[in-house]
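Recall from the previous lesson that a structure prediction takes nothing but the amino acid sequence as input. Here we apply that procedure to DUF4013 domain-containing protein from Methanocorpusculum petauri. The sequence below is the only information supplied.
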Amino acid sequence: MALQSLGEAAGWMAKSPYVWLSGLWTAAVLLLAWYLYEGVGIMTAVSVALVLAFVLPALIAGTYGVVAEGESSFRVFRRYAVHGYFRQLLPSILVFLIAWVISQFVSYILMTFGLGLAASAQVAMFVFIPVVFFCYFADVTAVVNEKRVFASVKDSFLRVMNGSFSVAVFYLVNVVLLIAVSFIGSFVFAAFAADAFLPFTSMTEAELLSLTPDELLAIMSAPEVMFAGFAAIAVCAVFFVPLFTLYKVCYFAKTSALVLPDATVAEPEGEYDEKGRWYKYK
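The prediction returns the following tokens.
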């Protein structure tokens, strides 16, 4: 089921132009942030990037709608992008806050017992990641099934808990894709930053080891290197933001059987008399 969903996600990327909008928008925001960072300053770049990033939930919700409806049309994409904006945004924020609060609480408890800051942070990260994984499908079910925020989190939890091996494979494939992103990004970064790192090729091992942290920082913060970093992330975003989004919603569509049906509330038994009054059976 997990591998089949990956194939379906790749198929949607081939047949629908609208699912690429999330990746193109992310790449455009990253490149604009680099331009503002170089020309204006880091505060302006970060502020503008954060504001523009709030358009991304609409594009993701539109992608969910295209797959849910099985129709690659701008009408469907726009309808889900508009009506599903807050349905995608609010569960994502809630999941992040839940994971952050729990991880920070665990980190604080460990530090009070004498554990170091670095070790506490590592343990907190191991707490943060499972919380996100259990709530990973909350935004999809909020958009597709129109559930409320907390009901969406519960739905995601049930899907993951009842999915067992299939969900484990799904997450494993996501990890493999992340590794692929890192490899592709490193190659793109090396291609863009080749000129900046060219002097290193003529240096001996002793000269490389003698470089001070300030010198290394100056090299890594050079405009060419910064542009290479932003460009590498932007190139990866164009392809992998839509792929991760589509893979998530394609797998979600196959997991309806993993959610336990809501318990039906038994209606009280009774009858109406001749005057229309209802009497409940004892």
